[in-house]
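[job 4471] stage=fold_predict status=RUNNING
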Amino acid sequence: MSNTPSLIIAKGTCLTRHETKDFATEMVALLRATKIPVIWTLSSKADSSSAWRSPIEVLKQLVLQILHLNPSLLNDESPALNAARFQNATKESEWFAILASVLNGLEKLYIVVDAEIMNREMASQISWTDAFNTMLEDLKAVSCKTVVKIVLVSYSNSPYVSSSQPTTFGDVTVRIEKERRTATMRKRHFRSRGSQQGSNVLMPLLRL
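[job 4471] inference complete, writing structure tokens
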């Protein structure tokens, strides 16, 4: 794992939605197997609207997982854990700020989010690509030592994954193809293709 933050976009299509979900699940499993700290929100293979969550629910879940990884924060009188701040946060932007604030103390962290788990009817329509990119820029500006790698997964024209601005860290796109044994990775002028399933395809991503 490199010591620079990055934003990886894993893109499938409606036809490859199951392969895309498998990709995200295998990514989390590989990170856990290699003892790399990871938090995630993944959708199930069943395309059921009952599994949808609001964007704020997803962000809350990510924050809770970080607190489980970094319980020392619970013992500190930190502004990040101010109860009023949690109670008054009602916007996605406010929860992204809380997410950034609880990263302190972690050496490195992967965040894997399946954008398809979020109900579009409950969305503010902000781009999570832009929001995560802004979060990484803010962390860099305050010299945060946590190395954050974000994997944002989608298989539709989700407003969460669209970007309205140049992405400083979003220079990696993984295209999920039908057989799921093939992933095409683009990083500026770099391209590689794997022909096997599982860790042989995913391991190069962990070095980005």
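[job 4471] summary: The longest strand covers residues 147-154.
[job 4471] exit 0
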